[in-house]
Amino acid sequence: MTEPxxxxxxxxxxxxxxxxxxGAALIAAAAQIDAETEFLGVPGQPHPWAERPDAELxxxxxxxxxxxxxxxxxxxxxxxxxxxxxxxxxxxxxxxxIAVIGLREAYRGQGIGTRxxxxxxxxxxxxxxxxxxxxxxxxxxxxQALYRKRGLEIExxxxxxxxxxxxxxxxxWMGKLLEPIPGRRLAIVPTESAPVPAVAPSEAIPALRxxxxxxxxxxxxxxxxxxxxxxxALKLPSEVPTADAVERDLxxxxxxxxxxxxxxxxARHGGEAIVGFASANIEYGFRMQHDAFINxxxxxxxxxxxxxxxxxxxxxxxxxxxxxxxxxAAVQAPNRSDRAFVAALGYETEVTMRCYSMIxxxxxxxxxxxxxxxx
Length: 375
Fold this sequence. Notes:
The chain is of the alpha+beta class. The protein folds into 2 domains: 14-177, Gcn5-related N-acetyltransferase (GNAT) (Aminopeptidase, 3-Layer(aba) Sandwich), CATH 3.40.630; 201-372, Gcn5-related N-acetyltransferase (GNAT) (Aminopeptidase), CATH 3.40.630.30. The chain has 8 helices and 14 strands. A hairpin with an 8-residue loop joins strand 3 and strand 4. Helix 1 crosses helix 2 (53-63) and helix 5 crosses helix 6 (243-251). The longest helix is centred in the N-terminal third of the chain and has 15 residues, at 112-126. It starts with 13 loop residues before the first strand and ends with a strand.
């Protein structure tokens, strides 16, 4: 992200939401802005929406899950933009992530960045959002000044976040709580009786394998169970995708590297039951290819038997084979067992995202944790 430099421009600029017909012009403007700053996309690297920007904007507008604001001249030329997105689920939909803010070099220092922030904050408040957040380079002092001016505070430091200026540099995570804030009280992880397992853990040793076509039904059953039983799960049972949607994801993997690993055991009535899931994702865009995002979740009755560590070791080895320098994961702050698990694996807390989600009427902080490799 970048905040404008001090260059005088007399041409008036209007701030307005992007519409689908802006798609091609937005991609061209983003490429120009990337070429004029070191803090956004890599020049020459295609924008994630490059292949169908009009459809992406239409989907965003129809769903209400995000907004792209444009800074345009009187001739409707795009000279800057801001994109922001709400959380994926009902419990964190009040969290708005500002993904990008960028301006053409000739239009920096004119207060346009401030106006873009004012507009996105108003948009967030209309949707009853309770939080804004963004990520910014520790080298981007001008950008940080703008964000502090708009009330954002540094919530943590992502160590060795991005390779810039010939060295691995840190990024800051910044957040702003929007008023009124519901009662901010962290809950205690409830003590729950263990559900009746599909198969007694002592009777079978789970097998680890990559997910494959045909796993949709079993994976949906696993994810529904986790949504129902995991303390502070972000996803509600009603938000679990259908088996058909899972199958579509399996048959159309993303361009960026991804590993989906499952632990399976014999089901009571034949076939396999998924009892654990682990994933690793590497995003090549926006200088992120050195970082793998990790997730591990185990059925309650299989926890405490070393299965989670075994699955994590597999996805970590996969990520290291692809040259990553760090791993990133996230846990809900009140979840003591998850915090102990990631600490035992060598992760350190880097960011505390205040009031990231609302669960049971309570605001819950989220921790972003990191594990570094190499010098």
